[in-house]
What does this fold into?
Amino acid sequence: MSGVPTPSPSASGNPVLTRRALRTQGVRLLDDGRQGDEVVACGLVGAVRMESGIYANFGRRMQISDLEMEVPLKEEVTIKIFLEGHVEASIDGEPIPMPRRTAQGRWVPSAIIASHREGARLRRTARKGQYLDKMVIGLPRDWLRRWQGFADTPAGLQTLIDGRPGFWRWQPSSRVEFLVRQMFDIAARKPAFATMQLESHTMAIVSEALGDTFASGADAVAAPGGLTATEQQRLYALVKCIDRKPGCELCLTDVVGELATSPATLQRLVRKAHNCSLAEFIRNKYLDDARQALMFTDRPISDIAYAAGYTHLSNFTAAFRRRFGHPPSQLRRQGAT
It folds into this structure.
């Protein structure tokens, strides 16, 4: 993840990372003072850095030993994409969503766009045997400022330009997953024009991440500077609780019981973070998920509507149009094209 030093190649060409290398780079190890220098991570690692200052660091099958660490991050905007695997990680107490497996065993990638100030803390806990396929893309604010002052610049993108902290969840498309995996392959084979290909793929991912996240007016999972670490963790637990059930099965009583809190507490939390009611927050979350399903799956619109909590297609269409400005059928046609 951003802030973690890039492993140096071993004699065999397989990059490794030791505890000593981490400490040398200023990483704080939260491991009860163990001073061993065993390897804590290894795997295929690649990197690309452009003249604009945009960079991409990526690693495939990063096998991990027991490791608890904390590292300060520099002021920047990062796009973090996780394809497979799992570790526990957070930025200033905000949990980073990890990939999940479907009932059929397929990995569903996860991603975030994070804007943080100098000194933000990245914490990571990993256990022996865990691994992670990941990519981190860094965007300098000077590069983002090219969109400063445009009338059509979305509010979320303006947050990145202004340097305010924020944390947005983003669901990578199958195209993004393909591009990242191809970058793993390019880093391993080093074909002719490898740097050109890596730069091209990086910019394609950046374009889709920013467009997909901010063009629809997406809200930050954590409101900039407004939530305590405990509130951030509770809000993310609410999001995970919503993710586990389709809208047609979600019961607010079950949510309250699972989170061991009261409806009033959740109402205050959501109002503080997103300036809307709990019911609106849940409805918008399901509509955002429906939008992703319409663009990147072949599921019937009626099935997507039911999963979003709508038993009548007409009600789903009306709610979808209110949120995104167009009917779901139009988005499905665009996705097919």
Confidence is low (pLDDT under 50) at residues 1-13. The domain at 229-336 is CATH 1.10.10.60 (Arc Repressor Mutant, subunit A). The chain has two domains: 16-214, 229-336. The CA atoms of residues 100 and 108 lie 5 Å apart.
